[in-house]
Specification:
single chain; alpha/beta; Glycerol-3-phosphate (1)-acyltransferase; 9 helices; 17% strand; globular
Amino acid sequence: MGFNKIRLVIYATFITNLFGFKLKKATTKDEKKRLRVEFSTAMLSKLNINIVTKGLENIPSDDSIYMLVCNHRSVIDPVIVEKALEKSNIYGVWVAKKELYKSPFFGNFTRNAGTILLDRESKNMSGFFKDVKDAVKEEKSIFIFPEGGRNKSSEVISEFKSGSQILAIKNKIQIIPVYIETHAGEILKKTIADNSIEREIIIRIAKPINPRDKELSLEDKYREIFQL
């Protein structure tokens, strides 16, 4: 492991746990959003990565609740999304897998940042569906990676799980498609090796879509919207 990587790992561990404790004390959605954006800004600044957001105007200015779906190719994707939504009025809880809750690196932050635990090994998903329903009742949007995990293939996106569209239909919320156009995983590798160079990641936000649209699956609609 090179010196630059060690330095970045130490910084990331410190700041992630620091903001994890700050978020534990936060009591309002506005406070949690502010802290999540501050954390994202600090991480991206350290990595010397600039986020270019296209289509922010496609997020309605009202206080409606949405399901935000995004492709997933790097560990910093949630940070990218949080930064992209900095100037929007949308606040959401992330669907997070069980492994993140137990992680010594991400655990404290994940548990306190505003997340819903998804245990893929559980035979009974009723608790998860109830948590999503409760979040929507509390006027919180749902942020989810419909691929179910990081896409490590050579394809721009991997197969979407059916759960995202089902959740949106059951909770009667529209879907906002979000696409991280730049391969964030490749950018992260480069910046870990050398973060003296400023790099750019482009993220695109589309207009809300109706999850009950049966003409195309969510994956096909997503591909069509972003011309993938």
